[in-house]
Design a protein that fits this description.
The chain is of the alpha+beta class. The chain has three domains: 23-92 and 414-445, SH3 type barrels (Roll); 123-406, Rossmann fold, CATH 3.40.50.1460; 455-628, Sandwich (Immunoglobulin-like), CATH 2.60.40. The strands form seven sheets. Strands 21, 23, 24, 25, 27, 28, 29 and 30 form an eight-stranded mixed sheet that branches. Strands 8-7-9-13-16-19 form a six-stranded mixed sheet, sandwiched between helices. The chain has a four-stranded antiparallel sheet with strand order 1-4-5-6. Strand 14 and strand 15 (283-289) form a beta hairpin. Helix 2 (150-163) runs parallel beside helix 8.
Length: 629
């Protein structure tokens, strides 16, 4: 290794940044039917039968979703895919959908529920991820309409949590009578006690929403209805923000989803005619509005003072960058529960997060906004022919650029002939039985190549995953550098100790590369409130053109990152890779997780509290430097 100063060209050097696992086929395992059953076109007992299956029939298990298994069967004439009841499959102990979800328990050990996540190209579970899943399908007051689909939502939310790398041991469930106002408040306090600085939390609520008049708030307020109802069984957004305050102050990201609605104006009129639910010609499932009226004055959406969870938490000092809140509907709309497949919002958010969302900007990852758009399209199709109601609109507040699960891009790979024969996930099949579609095995082709982002866009994606509570300052003596004459100089300062990573997107707009640490200088530790000057003398970086703007991203991570797995080339001492979806995905996954978080030193909440390196969180700053003649 040369000890002389290395002077790379600032603009022309190549690098790569942002994302996670590569596009490709989802992992799968072979299983067999434990009894005679049917292969169906959709996750519905009334869906068309594609083929009868005898006991012992061999199947390739693709994923488990909401009590149903998505499988592939190989026949002499080709292959076909469809859905069977998970209970009809002989699943290995420890990976059974029933054992892991219906009871909320899983065998201990180092594993993830493998069968449950087969459809998700996700990374392994991480001890610093947590979930609280609340579902209320029946209420203490018999006059409150039941929501049978909330039990399916428990399963769907579990899959979402696992896609976000939450281990089963860190998922807490409250179901029906457990989900009283007191029970929910206590569970949130216990979650706060468990969560450590830099952890990540997912909270899912499926049940009735409601409204009531609060003179202190100056009008009607939105609330969640707990199992017991009454004064203690109503939790407003304001109270929820207060209950979450301790968690929001610690978490890297807090993702909260309400599959409930707060509008009851048209519900009462409809329920007088059809008390068992709302029929839709597209599906045989019965839709039920997820609203319970407890106030005559606030039952109709008139002059509503709507304050969503992000607004309420921000009012208490939380930063919107670190919070993601998804509501099933707008404040003047009704959202629905399908008693056979769960809440429309939950089942479609799950499907899109697990496999159906499209990487619209070719960034190498799937953002919350892309998941929302995918789920909204599914809701629109599901409600397209309802004679009484229009589709409700998912509402996303907070950090829409958040990437909840760094998984592969099924949407950028060619669609196989098998998949092309199926109705879209979540869209019901017709009511007439059709012959099983049997097609030849698809021809293997190279994955489609995503169009490159600019280097600045690639870096911006990583910047949006930062923890805004961690403050990083990045300054330079010169923001304009003369080509062939001026060298780059940076001053980095962080309010927390950590590890510094510097990425550069050159003015040639071809790539991004990892400037620091590098082969000449691996000492990237920074102490809190101490200034770090870069580059160091051994690796000066001089402006070399072309004319244009260089984008710099500096991350200060709580824990060190292991970049050895990055499939990349070298430009002198610097790690480089192409600025494509695969390169961005790999680097994004590696830069957003601590290399030590799953080690023995982080195995308990007490251990994580003592060891900052157990956190995946990082602060970040961006800077533009212009190269001139």
């Amino acid at each position: 290794m040369s000890t002389s100063p290395f002077k790379p060209r600032l603009g022309a050097i190549v690098l790569a940044m942002a994302g996670l696992l590569t596009a490709g086929t989802a992992a799968a395992q072979t299983t067999a039917t434990s009894r005679a059953t049917e292969l169906r076109a959709d996750k519905l007992a009334s869906a068309p039968i594609l083929a009868p299956l005898s006991a012992g029939a061999s199947l390739r298990l693709i994923s488990l979703e909401g009590g149903w298994a998505y499988v592939e069967q190989t026949l002499p004439a080709g292959r076909q895919v469809g859905w069977v009841r998970a209970s009809a499959l002989n699943l290995q102990a420890g990976t059974s959908l029933v054992s892991s979800q219906d009871t909320g328990r899983q065998a201990t050990g180092g594993g993830v529920n493998a069968a449950l996540t087969l459809g998700v190209r996700s990374l392994p579970p991480r001890v610093n991820r947590h979930a609280l899943i609340i579902g209320i399908s029946r209420y203490a007051d018999p006059a409150t309409p039941q929501l049978p689909g909330a039990r399916i939502d428990k399963q769907s939310a579990t899959q979402m949590a696992q896609a976000m790398q939450v281990p089963m041991s860190n998922i807490r469930y409250l179901q029906d009578e457990q989900a009283t106002g007191k029970g929910i408040r206590q569970a949130l306090q216990e979650l706060n006690d468990q969560v450590q600085d830099g952890d990540r939390v997912f909270i899912h609520f499926s049940g009735h929403g409601t409204r009531y008049n609060d003179p202190a708030a100056g009008g009607c307020v939105e609330a969640l209805l707990a199992y017991d109802g009454g004064q203690s069984g109503v939790i407003t957004n304001h109270e929820m923000a207060d209950l979450l305050k301790g968690i929001t102050n610690k978490t890297d990201k807090l993702f909260v989803m309400y599959d409930a609605c707060h509008s009851g104006g048209v519900v009462q009129a409809a329920s007088a005619v059809r008390t068992r639910g709302l029929l839709n010609s597209d599906d045989e499932g019965l839709l039920r509005p997820k609203f319970a009226g407890i106030s005559q004055e606030c039952g109709r959406p008139v002059n509503i003072k709507s304050r969503n969870l992000v607004v309420e938490t921000a009012a208490q000092g939380a930063l919107p960058q670190d919070i993601i809140h998804v509501s099933a509907s707008r404040d003047n709309e009704i959202s629905f529960d399908d008693e056979l497949k769960g809440g429309l919002a939950t089942q479609f958010m799950r499907d899109c997060m697990l496999r159906d969302a499209v990487d619209l900007d070719n960034s190498g990852s799937i953002s919350m906004e892309e998941i929302r758009q995918c789920a909204q399209e599914k809701i629109n199709k599901r409600m397209a022919h309802d004679v009484n109601f229009k589709p409700h609109n998912l509402v996303l507040n907070g950090n829409a650029a958040f990437v909840p699960s760094w998984f592969g891009l099924a949407s950028t790979a060619p669609v196989s002939a098998i998949a092309a024969t199926l109705p879209p996930t979540g869209q019901a099949a017709t009511n007439t039985v059709q012959p099983a579609p049997v097609v030849a095995a698809p021809v293997t082709t190279a994955p489609a190549v995503a169009a490159p982002l600019s280097g600045a866009q690639a870096l911006q994606q990583l910047f949006e995953q930062r923890d805004a509570k961690r403050r990083v300052q990045l300054t330079t003596a010169k923001d304009k550098l003369k080509i062939g004459q001026d060298a780059l100089d940076l001053a980095v300062q962080s309010d927390r100790a950590g590890y510094v990573y510097v990425a550069l997107a050159g003015s040639d707009n071809k790539s991004v590369y990892l400037l620091f640490p590098n082969d000449l200088d691996a000492n990237n530790r920074i102490e809190a409130n101490q200034q770090l000057l870069l580059p160091r003398p051994a690796w000066r970086v001089k402006a070399a053109g072309p004319v244009g703007k260089d984008q710099l991203l500096v991350l200060v991570a709580d824990g060190p990152r292991d970049l050895h797995a990055l499939a990349a080339a070298k430009a002198g001492p610097f790690v480089t890779s192409l600025n494509d979806a695969q390169g961005r995905a790999q680097l994004g996954a590696l830069l957003t997780r601590s290399a030590t978080a799953n080690g023995d030193s982080c195995s308990s909440p007490a251990a994580r509290k003592k060891n900052p390196q157990c956190s995946d969180a990082y602060g970040a700053a961006m800077l533009t430097v212009e190269e001139t003649k």
